[in-house]
């Protein structure tokens, strides 16, 4: 009998006993937590909106939730349809992402990532919309007007209030030009608007001067804007701000300037300009 007792591996018995006790404790805790979660009431709702724009605010989100789901405060947390609420929020044209969850203390937290507008488009029919960096259209609103580049002129891209993507190569090019300008302090201060002319070439409307600045497309933008910089820093100071009516860099390798019809250069100015590549 004593030998049989000695043969028993007491360490293994102790291990399995402690393991079994641990499983029981976990089950008990989960049961208690589960029952508490079933009774947990929503005490408050906190809404956090991320992003640099102000298309929507906390009041807009609260109103939308109240209209579709009623007030969350006082409801059981496990009775709030979190997934449905997220889907509703993600359908908003100003929202890029949304999430909702409840803390252990009964606080329901709603996190919103707001879309960023990089350009405002006014097409040839007067239809307006914003475009975000991903090429998605955003409806305009009188509530908030972002300080961004505006593109007008011969633009056929339409908008039907849906959250769709831009469909024409021209508007895709316009976005690239707007983003390029927005990242450069010099051009952000000098260019006030983008215009598409009858030939579907992209023009820049300058803050200083009245020239037509033709860049054509979004190809070779760094080279084209470097040529424009050459015009402003080397050519314009020699001939005057209004000497040329058109400055064309659409071909990327050269500056083509057209003199205004009623403008004449002195011999000295002609020599100075001739030293630059025009």
Features of this protein?
single chain, 278 residues, Rossmann fold, 2 domains, 9-stranded mixed β-sheet, cell division, transmembrane, membrane, cell cycle, transmembrane helix
Blueprint (SSEs and pairs):
Layout: H1 2-7, H2 10-39, E1 44-50, H3 58-69, H4 82-90, E2 95-102, E3 107-114, E4 119-122, E5 128-131, E6 137-138, E7 149-153, H5 169-182, H6 185-190, E8 191-196, E9 202-206, E10 212-216, H7 221-239, E11 244-248, E12 256-259, H8 267-274
Parallel strand pairs: 1-3, 4-7, 7-8, 10-11
Antiparallel strand pairs: 2-3, 4-5, 5-6, 8-9, 9-10, 11-12
Low-confidence stretches: 31-36, 262-278
**What's the Cα radius of gyration?**
32 Å
Q: Summarize the amount of helix as a percent range.
A: 25-40%
CATH topology of the largest domain: Rossmann fold
Order of H and E elements: HHEHHEEEEEEHHEEEHEEH
Beta-strand portion reads 15-25%
* Count of distinct strands: 12
How can the largest sheet be summarized? Answer: 9 strands, mixed
How far do the termini sit from each other?
111 Å
Q: What is the name of the CATH architecture of the largest domain? A: 3-Layer(aba) Sandwich
- What's the shape? elongated
State the strand order across the main sheet: 6-5-4-7-8-9-10-11-12
CATH class of the largest domain equals Alpha Beta
How confident overall, as mean pLDDT?
83
Number of domains: 2
Instruction: Return the structural class.
Output: alpha/beta
How many helices in DSSP terms?
8
